[in-house]
Design a protein that fits this description.
The protein contains 15 helices and 21 strands. By secondary structure, it is α/β, with parallel strands linked by helices. The protein folds into 2 domains: about 170 residues, Rossmann fold; about 210 residues, CoaB-like (Rossmann fold), CATH 3.40.50.10300. The strands form 6 sheets. It has an 8-stranded mixed sheet with strand order 12-11-8-13-16-17-19-20, with helices on both faces. Strands 2-1-3-4-5 form a 5-stranded parallel sheet, with helices on both faces. The longest helix is centred in the last third of the chain and has 15 residues. The chain binds cytidine-5'-monophosphate. Cytidine-5'-monophosphate binds next to helix 12 and strand 16. Cytidine-5'-monophosphate (C5P) binds next to helix 12 and strand 16.
Length: about 400
């Protein structure tokens, strides 16, 4: 279940073209279980009508400071009263300026001034407006006032220019908002981890790989980052977006993965091996494409380094977490791997329960025994793993 479930989010929409993205944002927030109440500025309502947001949120949409529908005529106070947060997306340069200076001349600005709940803004504007000295000053002012700023990103802009100022996509905003509410169980920790399959080249176009999708590893990287950790994700070849705030290093083969892990390891508190690392690689990689002939082709394979076992055996090793995907006898194989690699914690699952899909059923193994987690979306399983891991980590010194 998303951390946004049952949260009341007041979504303010000011007048920028990125307002069209707010429709998808309302849909995704609703899908995550949030109760979304939309407040449109006059400009926002010129881009997308209240009807759209009413249909998507299932709640009354508010636009007018003088709206008589609120029984006590206090929409500017009541709307934010029991909210978990106010998110303004898009937040235009003008809205940020008015926020910075405490203006209260429409419902949205008044609501923001009269609030006692967290305020988050997602700026959206043309590159020159974003870079202009007044906007820079205003963003600094609202940050100093405790407002959280999500984005903006660089990229194509509606005005035809390319640069900084594009509002984050709806999926990115939901991910950041979830992260905002996640308890910071790994604050100050450095986590290095692997994810995905590996690819062991046979020739320039062929290789040995496996069916790991990387979804569990990426979900765990996201959960660690949302829990406040600094995350370096060493990834095999997958087609997944890098989670917000995660530093991703591409490493297709086991040996490249090992090198990238050891590069990132200094200062790591935790190492998590989620990758399905190939146990073997071809003894030789052909420089040119192998040509077919009628003969049998024999590939000679040589063992790959076991990255996790090597890291766990280091003097002063970080807290190491292994993964084991088994096709049978999960308890015996998983606990056997944990002991042979000397790991304080291992996450086991049956291949049919997790590999490739969006859900997983896992059992956590540690010195105290086995701890099954309920079947859930990989994002939720990842949060369960993070909370167990945080409980096992030694309290930080100092
Ligand atoms: O392949 P195996 O089942 O032994 O994998 C168990 C754990 O060891 C996983 O966490 C995997 O990421 C890690 N591993 C590794 N390097 C290998 C093989 C496995 O880091 N060469």
């Amino acid at each position: 279940m998303s951390v946004l479930n049952d949260r009341k989010i007041v979504l303010g929409i000011s007048g920028g073209i990125a307002a069209y993205k707010a429709a998808e944002l309302v849909r995704l927030l609703g899908k995550a279980g949030a109760d979304v109440h939309v407040v449109l500025s006059e400009g926002g309502a010129r881009f997308v009508t209240p009807v759209t947001f009413q249909a998507l949120s299932g709640n009354t949409v508010w636009t007018d400071l003088w709206d008589a529908r609120m029984p006590n005529n206090m929409a500017h106070i009541d709307l934010g009263r029991d909210a978990d947060a106010i998110l303004v997306a898009p937040a235009t340069a003008d809205f940020i300026a008015r926020l910075a200076h405490g203006r209260a001349d429409d419902l949205l600005s008044t609501l923001c001034l009269a609030r006692d709940v967290p305020l988050i803004v997602a700026p959206a504007m043309n590159r020159q407006m974003w870079e202009s000295p007044p906007t820079r000053r205003n963003v600094d002012l609202i940050r100093a006032d405790g407002v959280t700023v999500f984005g903006p990103a660089a990229g194509d802009q509606a005005c035809g220019e390319v640069g900084m100022g594009r509002m984050l996509e709806a999926e990115e905003l939901v991910e950041l908002l979830e992260g905002y509410f996640v308890p910071k169980l790994l604050a100050g920790r450095r986590v290095v981890m692997t994810a995905g399959p590996t690819f062991e080249a046979i020739d320039p176009v062929r290789g040995i790989t496996n069916i790991s999708s990387g979804k569990m590893g990426y979900a765990l990287a996201r959960a660690c980052a949302q829990a406040g950790a600094e995350v370096v994700l060493v990834s095999g070849p997958v087609s997944l977006p890098v989670p917000a705030g995660v530093c991703c290093v591409q490493a297709p083969s086991a040996r490249e993965m090992r090198a990238a892990v050891f590069d990132a390891l200094p200062g790591a508190d935790v190492f998590i091996g989620v990758a399905a690392v190939a146990d073997y690689r071809p003894v030789q990689t052909a420089e040119h494409k192998l040509k077919k002939s009628g003969d049998t082709l024999t590939l000679s394979l040589t063992p790959n380094p076991d990255i996790l076992a090597e890291v766990a055996a280091l003097e002063g090793a970080p807290f190491c977490v292994g993964f084991a995907a088994e096709s049978r006898d999960l308890d015996a194989y998983a606990e056997g791997k944990r002991r042979s690699k000397r790991l304080p914690m291992l996450v086991g699952n049956l291949v049919r329960d997790g590999m490739g899909g969006d859900d997983n059923t896992v059992i956590l193994y540690d010195d105290a025994g086995r701890h099954p987690l309920p079947r859930a979306r990989k994002a939720d399983v990842a949060r369960g793993i993070v909370s167990h891991l945080a409980g096992l980590l030694a309290p930080r010194k100092g």
